[in-house]
Amino acid sequence: MPRHDDAPGRTAVVTLRSARVTRRPPPHRRAEHLAAPTVTAVWVREESPPDSPPPLDWMGLSTLPVDDLATAETVLRYYTYRWRVERYHYVLKSGCHVEDLP
Fold first, then answer.
1. Which residue of 19, 31, 33, 62 is surrounded by the most CB atoms within 10 Å?
2. Main-chain dihedrals φ then ψ at residue 57, nearest 5 degrees
């Protein structure tokens, strides 16, 4: 785990689980007769965390099928890139003001 605020970086031992799940369409869109999407849930949980900071416990949904540990690790790694992408968009919008360009 990378450092966060005042907490130093640390090594976390986690359990990684995955399962295919079918989600119900949102109730407010019932009239559209949407199909129920099937996605993969990937759950990462720190089983024996230290007293502080809070334990790692995260679940993400992916359209990628996860059939083995290597693929589950890939989906987890892809999620870690999300923060870089969000920061990139923040810089484009707030720093470079790309939305104000003609």
1. 62
2. -155, 105
